[in-house]
Amino acid sequence: MRISGKAVIFGDDVNTDVIIPSKHLTSLDPEELAKHAMEGLDPKFPEKARGGVIIVAGRNFGCGSSREQAPLALKHAGVKCILADFFARIFYRNAINIGLPVLECPGISGRIEEGDILTVDLEEGKIINETRKAVIEAHKLPGFILEILRDGGLIAHLKKRLGGMES
Amino acid sequence: MNLAEKILAYASGRDEVKPGEIIQAKVDMAMANEITGPLAIKAFKEIGIKRVWDSGRIVLVQDHQVPADTVKSAELHRIMRRFAEEQKIKWFYDVGSGGICHQVMVEKGHALPGDLIVGADSHTCTYGALGAFSTGIGSTEMAAVFATGEIWLKVPETIQIRVEGIFKKHVTPKDLILHVIGRIGASGATYRAVEFTGSAISSMSVSGRLTICNMTVEMGAKTGIIEPDEKTLSYVKQRASRPFRPLRSDPDARYERIFEVNVDDLEPQVACPHRVDNVKPVSEVEGVRIDQAFLGSCTNGRLEDLRAAAMILKGKKIDRRVRMIVTPASQEVYLQALREGYLEIFVEAGAIVSNPTCGACFGGHMGLLAPGEVCISTSNRNFVGRMGSPEAEIYLASPVTVAASALAGRIVDPTEYLGDEG
Lengths: 167, 422
Ligand code: SF4
Known about the structure:
The complex is a heterodimer of chains A (about 170) and B (about 425).
Chain A lengths: L1 E8 L6 H4 L10 H5 L10 H5 L3 E5 L11 H9 L1 E6 L4 H9 L4 E3 L12 E5 L4 E4 L4 E4 L5 H9 L2 H9 L5
Parallel strand pairs in A: 1-2, 2-3, 3-4
Antiparallel strand pairs in A: 1-5, 5-6, 6-7
Chain B lengths: L2 H9 L10 E5 L2 E5 L3 H11 L10 E4 L9 H16 L4 E3 L7 H7 L8 E5 L12 E4 L2 H10 L1 E5 L3 E7 L8 H12 L8 E5 L1 H4 L3 H9 L8 E4 L3 H8 L19 E6 L6 E3 L7 E3 L10 E4 L1 H4 L2 H11 L9 E4 L4 H9 L2 H8 L2 E2 L20 E4 L15 E4 L2 H10 L5 H4 L5
Parallel strand pairs in B: 2-3, 2-5, 3-4, 5-6, 8-9, 8-11, 9-10, 14-15, 14-17, 15-16, 17-18
Antiparallel strand pairs in B: 1-7, 12-13
Bound molecules: iron/sulfur cluster.
The site of iron/sulfur cluster has 13 residues of chain B, from helix 4 and helix 10.
């Protein structure tokens, strides 16, 4: 799986309350959630993300609550992949489960500038900075996580696995 | 193996597990609330199987926006209600029957020593206080658990925190955990289990242990955990909804890091805006004017917390410029506080007593802050916008510090302000 897009930079400890404020949690509609993605940090983010971007962040991205609405809002706003030094654990699992690729890449935050064009190779665990002609190594994802991402998320993956069991 | 590893070994049917290994484990209980449940239910339906894996091992709780404040939240409640009925979910706590999900899990005996529990809420780590391995997951993953009763987990490294000493008067378990978070940092325990041990933990009540484990997620931990002892067993024995198996760490258990704390000289602590790890002794923030004081949440809304605050507020009036909201964590706590006369004390002091709900804690449907306002809260998060306006400020503290500050109208050090009172 290869993903390309423009980099949008965020700092350390971006929490789920700023990714999607709790007042929007009553909505189950991903498109509605997407309109408020990153509202707590940058209300213009949904405009910026339209058409597809890659978020590059620092440490502990997605800390705070278990709300899956956070990765869902980002995905539907146009985020194709998130690269961070490391993630908060529930956010990390949620993103994979809804089919939004996330890659841990210690030290990434200082090596990419806003607007750089990136290509991410998930299988290889490599990030190519097309703008600066540099290659950055990330932690490779375990095989079963890649499989979930290839299937488009945990539900699609389970459907394949369990779908035929009961009718 | 340490306690966390032992539980994971048991849950995955192995003799031994090691940190870093990925296991497939069977869960003992799965919990969701009306914020995370409806998404899980939607995802469950998409999988295309008809029945949940075990209708006696799922707990559904309405707590975040209770009673419903908007048509939208009423709809979320209804999705939960219908699913509970359809799937014959045995443990469904509707409006008026439970309270905040984490309090319900421990109080109704669903979280037990030796269990592996997953909950679609980040503060699921609370039940580690009873010797369970409990951790938060998201909605889609919960759908998979509803379907299979299983989950993949990476066996975490464990940090052990040894707590010795005796708390000074007006210094509480909340002050200890704030202090620890301040030292370890908001991401210092990411992916790790945090085990608490030592004489200060043994002498602490179950309620205090719940407060401590509740906040371990604020340093990124997968779970907080405490070995079950006599206190734990006498708490759970009267409540257990099924048989359980207490486990303990082996004498030669391995820890990634050992961290020592002595509480003898610990002062009351406050987490300042806008980070939970921005912790200072209260003496350094004394004098900050407050507009609102909140006593409640899954961190500090238990009977012991209400009692401590009531003893301080008894016969007094809170500052006229402060609005105080008191929210018991559950129907059981509410009823007990009513019987013991605390609710009367709060009302006479000029506070509002609400029904059990998450309410003000997460800025959902009540107790919101206007731009520029300051709140002192017993809850667990002070993120930007958490309780309303992104321009408001939240300080986190113990029930004692919150009650004393409500009287003063500004943040005060309860050890000085109250002296031997309370
Ligand atoms: S009381 Fe607050 S922290 Fe606890 S479950 Fe409710 S919203 Fe979450």
